Amino acid sequence: MSKAIENLIQAQKFAMSIRPKVGGFPYLAEALRQFGITRNVWQLPSCQSVYLTKYGAVVTQGSPLLNGTNDIPLFNQEKLILALRTDQAGKSTFPEFLKNTWEAGVISYDADFEKRKVTYFGVLGESYVEEYAFVEVPSAKHS
Question: What is the rounded distance in angstroms from the CA atom of residue 57 to the CA atom of residue 52?
């Protein structure tokens, strides 16, 4: 296992241990940033996640949301914001969040942990940017 993968796994475990159920994303993001993970780029509906880290890039392949040939939903910013607020309120699981963002027409999103913003993209070049606040997290012991 590479140093990049080991570091990512350690970062994710730490992040999940400190992340509150409600409003947890900024804590998750800051914990990952402390481990040298600068960005996380998701592709939907494939659920492929690329992490850019101080040790190199890592890809995680999740379970796809769809199989076969499907229409891509039109980008709907209101529906996307509803999916975000539902997740932020702790009223959806992460798989539900991914499904809801896909249904809002999101084909990818880019979480920039250094700039504390997430950009959501539609298939026709549409985008929506959401910034998140800095939060204090306990300092993790990591390499």
Answer: 5
pTM for this one?
0.93
For every residue of 85-138, which 3-state class applies, written as one string? HHHHCCCCCHHHHHHHHHHCCCCEEEEECCCCEEEEECCCCCEEEEECCCCCCC
> Could you tell me which of 92, 98, 115, 125 has the C-alpha nearest to residue 24?
92
Burial code (b: 16+ CB inside 10 Å, e: under 16) for 126-139 equals bebebebeebebee
Q: What is d(CA 20, CA 11) in angstroms, rounded to the nearest whole number?
A: 16
Segment 27-48, tens digit of pLDDT = 999 999 999 999 999 999 999 9
Residue owning tokens 């730490």: 14
